[in-house]
Amino acid sequence: xxxxxxDSIEDLKVALKNDSDLQEKFKTNPVEAIRNLEIVNPKxxxxxxxxxxxxxxxxxxxxxxxxxxxxxxxxxxxPDSQLVTIFATISSGAIGALAGLLSPSPRK
Length: 108
Prior knowledge:
The protein is mainly alpha-helical. Helices cover 72% and strands 7% of the residues. It has a two-stranded parallel sheet.
């Protein structure tokens, strides 16, 4: 049976301190004990990271679009072209990042 350890040495220390069976395995054959460890990456198990990023990118896109609409209504004459270019660049970057996060990753 594999022992789950998060991606840090501190978690390995805690697992060794709390699990007497794991301590015994390390005493008898440390190489085999290391092979039986399963290292868990928090990015693979914590889905809230991606949810927060997607929500923030979505809010950024909505805020920029709303800002451009308000800018076009409130500006006298034509809005500043540099400001519109900056907003468009930021929003297109956010849309690209959002598309990269939401697209399925290729299977190996």
